[in-house]
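Re: weekly structure request thread

Next one in the queue (300 aa):
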Amino acid sequence: MSRTRSRSGKQIKKDPATNGEKTGSRPAFKIGIPVVAIIALVLTYKYQGSEDLRNNLYRPLYSEISQIRNAIQQNHIYVSFQTSVKSDLEDKGEINRLPMRLRNQVRQAYADAASLIGNMPVEEVERVTSIQVERIRTKEQDDQWLKKTVNEMNAELMSKPGESAIRSFEFKHAGTSPGIEAHSDNPKYITPAALIWGFQDWVDYPASVKNIEQLWGDQQFLIFDETRENWYFRITREDLRRNHLSLLEFITPIHDALSKVSDVRSVKARRDSVASEFDNLRNEIAERVDDPKRLSDFLP
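Done, posted below.
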């Protein structure tokens, strides 16, 4: 503690800790050049190159990730999807522009999705199904039924009063609408509609058999591979009646053979898990489209 004299000659105690300033007064803060420089660096990092990341990295990835997620959840026995965006980014080294944590997340998700491609014995399903179909129908019977049914459908259509180019259909199960020849003022049918026995139907067996029985009409195919139009991957109600079979009796041998080589419920659980993984990844990529660069990206 030092002492100084006032103009009146009185000694005043001076506290070196406060340098003579009144105690309790607020300290003054000044923004110096270093702070301004840091803010400028942060803003430069935040916005420089953001549009390039948004348009050339995150948006293409978001689109492909969405497509893969949808493919995983489709009602198909097999899973199929494209990974050209990720492959192109890897070939060009652009994938390394992703923050390390996100880059690892993308690679893991794609690897998990790829593991689904071979987790259903598609060849076995097709072979067993075609053998069972060939036991109850022939190609000639398929051709005859197709011609007869299309003629019936068009006759019913012509019997309705008035004219209309509109054809409406209602779906309560996976299926395909009738094929229509639309090059005239009065379109006509050229192929019948079909219900699709899909992956979920194998998961829900035998309850799915009852559901199909209630929805399947006499003028519809029941098809077991919606990607192919071969006669040995589809049946009709007429086929079952001709062979004195119920749908359950027809399906059960296929289901039993499939159960020996695959647990469809486990496959379903795995697909749901990977789909959830892609949901989370898609949400994170969507946030990156809005905010491509973050200061947290510097953290390990």
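The longest strand covers residues 2-5. The radius of gyration is 35 Å.
Next request, please.
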